[in-house]
Amino acid sequence: MLKAYYYLLMRDLRLAFRNRHELANPLIFFVLVVTLFPLAVTPTTEALRAMAPGVIWVSALLAVLLSLDRLFKEDFDDGSLDQLMLSPNPLVILVLAKVTAHWFLTGLPLVIIAPLLGMFMALPDEAGAVLIYSLLLGTPVLSLIGAIGVSLTVAVNRGGVLLSLIVLPLYIPILIFGANAVDVAMDGLPVRGQLLFLAAVLVLALSLAPLATAVALRITASR
Amino acid sequence: MLKAYYYLLMRDLRLAFRNRHELANPLIFFVLVVTLFPLAVTPTTEALRAMAPGVIWVSALLAVLLSLDRLFKEDFDDGSLDQLMLSPNPLVILVLAKVTAHWFLTGLPLVIIAPLLGMFMALPDEAGAVLIYSLLLGTPVLSLIGAIGVSLTVAVNRGGVLLSLIVLPLYIPILIFGANAVDVAMDGLPVRGQLLFLAAVLVLALSLAPLATAVALRITASR
Amino acid sequence: MLEIQSLECVRDDRLLFSELSFSLGEAEVLQIEGPNGSGKTSLLRILCGLRLPEAGRVLWQGESIRSNREDFYASMVYIGHLPCIKADLTVLENVRALLDTRSLTVTGEATEAALAKVGLASYEDVPGKALSSGQRRRILLAFVELAGARLWVLDEPLTALDVQGVALMESMILEHRAAGGSVVFTTHHGMQLDCEMRSVRLGRIARSAGQGENQC
Amino acid sequence: MLEIQSLECVRDDRLLFSELSFSLGEAEVLQIEGPNGSGKTSLLRILCGLRLPEAGRVLWQGESIRSNREDFYASMVYIGHLPCIKADLTVLENVRALLDTRSLTVTGEATEAALAKVGLASYEDVPGKALSSGQRRRILLAFVELAGARLWVLDEPLTALDVQGVALMESMILEHRAAGGSVVFTTHHGMQLDCEMRSVRLGRIARSAGQGENQC
Amino acid sequence: MNWSEFFHMGGYAFYVWTSYALTLVIVVANIVSPLLQRRKIIARIKRAIKRENIELAKSHE
Amino acid sequence: MIKSIWHWIQRFSSPKHFYGMSAKLIPWFTVSALLVGLYGLYLGLFVAPTDYQQGESYRIIFIHVPAAWMSLFVYMVMAISSGIGIIWQIRLADMVAAASAPIGASFAFLALVTGSLWGKPMWGAYWVWDARLTSELILLFLYFGYMALQSAIEDQRSADKASGLLAIVGVVNITIIHYSVEWWNTLHQGATVAKFDKPSMHIDMLIPLLLMALAFKLFYAAVVLVRTRNEALYRDRNRRWVRELINEL
Ligand code: HEM
Ligand SMILES: Nc1ncnc2c1ncn2[C@@H]1O[C@H](COP(=O)(O)OP(=O)(O)OP(=O)(O)O)[C@@H](O)[C@H]1O
Ligand SMILES: Nc1ncnc2c1ncn2[C@@H]1O[C@H](COP(=O)(O)OP(=O)(O)OP(=O)(O)O)[C@@H](O)[C@H]1O
Ligand SMILES: [Mg+2]
Ligand SMILES: [Mg+2]
Fold first, then answer.
1. Which of B3, B18, B74 sits opposite D103 (nearest CB)?
2. In terms of Cα–Cα distance, which of B96, D44, D27, F109 is closest to D17?
3. How much is the mean pLDDT over chain D?
4. pLDDT band at A171 (very low <50, low <70, confident <90, very high)
5. H-helix or E-strand containing D110?
6. How does DSSP assign A15-76, residue by residue?
7. Whose CA is nearest to atom 7 of ligand 2?
8. Would you call B142 exposed, middle or buried from its count of C-beta atoms within 10 A (0-12, 13-18, 19+)?
9. Residues with Cβ < 8 Å from B64, sequence gap 6 or more?
10. What are the angstrom distances between the C-alpha of C202 and each of C36, C205, F102?
11. Are D65 and D72 in contact (CB under 8 A)?
12. What is the pLDDT at residue D76?
């Protein structure tokens, strides 16, 4: 079982590293979207700072959202998903492996680059640290919840926008708490509450989302 | 030739209307993304108003971006694109038909719903009108430029993020002028210059983009 | 081993088959026959547990496959219309990836031998995207060969194979049967098997409920 | 009509064929033969102008097809490995959409007759997504029938077709030839054509440049 | 209280009556749309039956 | 015992049985919804006194609040019956869920629009980003998501199960959103929320409000029955009972 988890994780990582350029894509998308805002509004430092937590978090969320179809779409299209479903290993484990790979390839890079963008948006240092923590706790949840959404829409062609319709409302609590933590940190107030909430949601998602995803996959496979 | 244009346009519109629900998807995505921002920042009226032009324009741009693969992806995957390319009609005309359909299905609805979102973001009325004009001139350009991007990336699987890398930089001038027009209108200043620029870009894109798209399609078809 | 009890399958408006029952023992080969759209693919997917039937059950060693999933899946292998090939993995990696989902560890030599057998000997490090349609299907043959399953479920295994490929598939089935394994397959292009073979015929294209006819 | 002059095709590292020349006159049928991966699909795509050859030219009525696109495309029709079927359009609309790209207006009766001929008579208003793989291919047959082209280029037209479907394809080709049209096709599954037929054999799978062998 | 005062709603006529009018619209839509849907479904099934009968007759020939 | 209950449930929940039974119920619900609604409107528009703070504008309450309540109630019905459909494989439950979605969405829409119409005179803006408003908006999106997924998946059974799963996940989400937005907003913007504090209501206002709420519930019951009947007809279009029924029409 653990072996199956490990192998699948490795396969997905190897696949991603095969096209190096793709690896950086969510990251570049993240950076691009964040840079769009200063271009679109008059960039005074205060204005930038005020919108920074929101803009960075929303962009991270969109970057994850856009990379979600990496999770199952290709496997579905070429029939590999059928083979996963016919594996003697519990589907939940395999789902978890795929979600882990997805987070390594999208969430983690976002967390790493975020301080740079914070600097770019004139975010004070202490808020920058909180930004990292909040993203570190939040992005895995985005991948986990996203997995449910993708598994529900994977059989639908042109499901891209449908996916966002389904997933974005589910992302909202994370967005509120993540951005709020950074916002509050900017005012020098304590953020333990927000981070604890994010941690709690992470635990919850970690235990429930793979199950829901596995159920959803069995449903959509029933072609 | 005109007949080919008309038929293809009609086919695409009919296809879209076959799944009614999909029709609304870019629209809902637009509304959803705009909603994310007030949730992520402290929603005081001034803060909202200050970021409104940027947020609405960036969201519109992302909505168009996400719906771009509607343009050729499916036709490519099922082989219909090969058939288009084997048509005795000039490819440019067919491209134009597809772009027109795309704009009717994504750009136009965005223009129509935009005033509502302006209200959400506490945008004053006169700026709301300018928002509509700027979107009306800007969204067709987004579709036209997007078509070039899709035709280049359509053969790449998981091309979604690659597409945004190619297209977003090209979108930036439109974004700057569009958002700026609204921004300036909020201060009660004249916006003729910005709108004229957008109109000029539209004319330029209308005459050049379909040609570029046709060339790009011939290149990617050479599998 | 495998027992099908009064299956019914409806797609959209059409009843494809109902009250379909048959069973498959060891060392048996079964062909599902029927014209285009008669429900062969649907039947095979139900048989693997990928699709839920409208009625009826599939039993493996006397137990429902849904309650007995791990056991059943450890001893069967399925290939469908789709090639399961990753464009960015090499031929060798593609085979290994397929085997990994089944948690099988196969030695390097065995894998190479299988690839040689299906005619991809010199293609180990060619990426999937550079293969022709027939070469892709051959990877699946290597996978089936190495999976070590007792039951093979093959949906149109001859698709895109050239004459030599067809002969290969035939000999593989015969070998598998000789070793006590069983096979369920569909094909429109005559497979000449030099062994006893049963067949299930699915009805003529039935446009509405009640018109399906199946023989067993 | 069609003339191929010393074509060369290289994919990745491999030379698939070079110095390949042949021509096709009226009422001629030509089969492209060769094992999996020998370059049949690549050749047909070059022949239609969808792919550029590494060297050589394709001429239509003595003119290069690239300079003469409209004329060439008005008189040829191609079907490839992919089904070109829109999941959300009905069978009838799918055929019409295919014809529309060629700016053909075909009467309703003609379309219905063609659909009946390919065995989709009662399927006119079934959406593409609800068709089996064989039924999808049959839509393409109707399209070819109605396209009114003089040259047919068919890549594995027998894929997924049942016995009856194969017979239909054969008779269609014969009819087309009788009316003075020509056909280029590939297939692995014997097509029994009751007429004179030429063939071009592409070489054995050649791993590196220089090993390709073609006969004509 | 007279009617014009009633319709005036103390200056809030626009807000109040738009709300009530919209409610009416939505109630009516909720009544009409399932009825139309029902008609469509029945017509569709009838068509299917007709088609099957034709086919049955054909296959008996 | 359990087995016989199970059998009874299955028989009772067969679309055919439901179709017959619901035909008898619909007129009752319709008529009582109409009567209760008209009486409630009469009390609300003519009898209830003018609010000393809000003036006449408060009369929007008689549709805003029932509509808002219904939008939550219908979502719960949808989620619960989806759960029943997934766990016990009862088809009728799936049909009820699918039939509820458009009705619930229209109530959510109504609550949103009447709320903003009320908000303009009260707060000076059609829209503010308050906890309740935000979660109601998200609720509308969840309805849209449910309906979009339902119609996007071709296979009816998969569509039911998939969208049902989404409805259930949505319940968890709506609760979290509600509390999170409340917390988030009270941190900065207590004022907006305070406006929602229900004034101890005059009994003459409370009664029409409750009557309207009841009328909306009855109306929902009638419409959902009609819609579920449609679903039953459509999904069983190949079964004998539908064929016989249609042939009699
Ligand atoms: C777009 C604007 C609005 C939306 C989306 C909205 C939404 C809602 C919702 C969802 C509820 C039900 C809450 C529950 O039962 O938990 C509700 C109840 C209520 N709303 Fe609104 N509302 C809006 C504007 C207003 C305004 C402007 C007022 C009056 C100033 C108002 C007064 C009330 C009252 C009195 C209740 C009943 C409270 C209760 O049951 O405790 N609403 N609204
Ligand atoms: N996704 C689908 N939705 C609805 N109906 C479908 C779907 N796929 C197939 N069908 C219908 O189900 C029937 C059986 O399809 P299936 O793919 O099982 O046939 P098959 O016997 O494998 O045919 P073929 O020989 O063409 O592969 C067909 O008549 C088709 O119309
Ligand atoms: N996209 C590609 N990129 C690189 N090489 C490719 C690509 N597609 C095919 N090839 C290579 O080109 C060769 C010819 O492929 P082609 O598809 O033309 O063969 P084919 O004769 O049609 O084979 P089949 O009978 O299997 O369909 C193969 O050896 C394959 O490895
Ligand atoms: Mg099949
Ligand atoms: Mg080929």
1. B3
2. D44
3. 86
4. very high
5. helix D108-117
6. HHHHSHHHHTHHHHHHHHHHHHHHHHS---HHHHHHHHHHHHHHHHHHHHHHHGGGTTHHHH
7. D130
8. buried
9. B26, B106, B107, B110, B139, B142, B143, B146
10. 10, 9, 40
11. yes
12. 93
Q: How many beta carbons lie within 10 A of that of residue D151, not counting itself?
A: 22
pLDDT of C205: 41
C44-80 tens-digit pLDDT = 999 999 998 888 999 999 999 988 888 999 999 999 8
Short-list C208, C186, C202, CA closest to C19: C202
Q: Which chains have 3 or more CB–CB distances shorter than 8 Å to chain C? A: A, D, E, F
For residue F93, give Cα distances in angstroms to C53, C182, F12, F90, F96.
19, 41, 12, 6, 5
Any contact of E with C, at least 3 CB pairs below 8 A? yes
Residue nearest to atom 3 of ligand 2 (CA): D130
pLDDT at A39 over 90: no
Q: Where are the domains positioned within chain C?
A: 2-201
The number of domains in chain F is 1
CA–CA dist F121, E18 (Å, integer): 13
Are F239 and C209 within 8 A, CB to CB?
yes
Q: Does residue F11 belong to any structural domain of this protein?
A: no
> Are A81 and A1 a contacting pair, CB within 8 Å?
no
Rg (CA), chain C: 17
Q: How far apart are alpha carbons A172 and F136 in whole angstroms?
A: 13
The answer, yes or no, to whether any atom of ligand 2 lies below 6 A from the CB of C135, is no
As a whole number of angstroms, the distance between CA D91 and CA D139 comes to 7
CA distances from B84 to B80, D52, D65, D99, D101 (A): 6, 17, 16, 10, 6
* Distance (Å, whole) CA F194 – CA F191: 5
- Residue F70 dihedral angles phi and psi, to the nearest 5°: -60, -40
Query: C17 C-alpha to center of ligand 2: Å?
Result: 12
Q: Are C120 and C142 in contact (CB under 8 A)?
A: yes
Tell whether the model's pLDDT for residue F196 goes beyond 90: no
Which pLDDT does position B160 carry in this prediction? 65
Q: Find, among C17, C2, C9, C30, the residue nearest to C185 by Cα.
A: C30
Min distance F16 CA to chain E CA atoms (Å): 16
Is residue F65 in contact with ligand 1, taking CB distance under 6 Å? yes
Range of the domain at F44: 30-248
Distance, CA of A114 to CA of A120 (rounded, Å):
10
Distances (CA, A) of C196 to B118, C30, C151, C174, C214: 74, 9, 17, 10, 21
Highest mean pLDDT among D129-138, E46-55, F123-132: D129-138
Rounded to whole angstroms, the Cα distance separating F245 from A190 reads 68
Q: How many CB atoms lie within 10 A of CB F222?
A: 24
pLDDT at residue C216 greater than cutoff 60: no
For residue A109, the number of C-alpha atoms closer than 13 Å in the C-beta half-sphere is 18
Placement of tokens 């589910």 in the chain: A170
- With tokens 């059928």, the residue in question is A82
Ligand 3 proximal residues by C-beta, below 6 Å: B 223; C 129-135, 160; D 11-12, 14, 16, 34, 36-42
CB A63 within 8 A of CB A36: no
Instruction: Read off φ and ψ for residue D90, nearest 5 degrees.
Output: -75, 170
Q: What is the ipTM of this complex?
A: 0.83
User: pTM for the whole thing?
Assistant: 0.86
Domains of chain E, by residue range, sit at: 26-61
Contact D201, D34 (CB under 8 A): yes
- ∠ CA F74-E21-F47, rounded to 5°: 90
Asked if residues C19 and C181 have their Cβ atoms less than 8 Å apart, the reply is: no
Sorted by where each begins, the domain ranges of chain A are: 2-221
Tell me how crowded residue A31 is: count the other CB atoms within 10 A of its CB: 18
Q: Which CATH class is domain C2-201?
A: alpha beta
Mean pLDDT in residue range F86-95: 91
